[in-house]
Amino acid sequence: MASPQPPDVAELVSRVTRALDGLGIPFMLIGGQAVLLHGRVRLTEDIDITLGVAPDRLPALLQLCQDLDLATLPTDVPRFVRETFVLPVRDSASGIRVDFVFSTIPYERDAIARAERVEVGGTTVPFATAEDLILHKLFAGRAVDWEDAVSVVRRKGAALDWTYIEARAFEFTEVPGREDLPDQVARLRGEG
Q: Cβ(101)–Cβ(120) under 8 Å?
């Protein structure tokens, strides 16, 4: 299955994938790019990538950005990454924004290991599974995230592993402000 990215996005995703693979950094695409694969067609102007590494790998990532002509956006990159666990960059040629999200939590490592490999621009790229994308969207909690999650449920239907989604949602109840995730999953399941 090929992913439905426009040519400039596909080329950038392909370049970034090859570079991250070359560094041995585990990762997966999430956000709007994964929604295009698993849910609805919608406008998305960026690429969100979860990295299975801690911010201490920032020097290697900054070198990767320099090699790929990706301009960092924060003025104080180390402080911004330390505070947010995100490195936002912009591709100099296309203007496309890429957000690299550092993550070391066990769930993210498991999600990256489960990622679905899809061909994009001649490169096999790891995307969050439909189930993990739903969990990411519910955790983010914005209205657009709910709409994205509903689109995945409507497109994937009975193929979704609801046992996995429910179990992971329950694990997130330990996070302050996310105690309602199991209820959201139950409500989302009714959207299918």
A: no
DSSP state of 92: T
pLDDT in tens, 25-34: 999 999 888 9
Whether 39 and 148 have beta carbons less than 8 Å apart is answered as yes
- Report the Cα 125 to chain-centroid distance in Å: 12
- From the list 56, 165, 183, 152, the residue with the least C-alpha distance to 111 is 165
> What domains lie within the chain, and their CATH numbers?
1-128 (3.30.460.10), 129-192 (no CATH)
Q: How far apart are CA 161 and CA 92, in angstroms?
A: 39
Tokens of 78: 């180390």
Name the token pair of 49.
């990538």
The pTM of the full predicted model, rounded to 2 decimals, is 0.91
Pairing of β 46-51 and β 70-72: unpaired
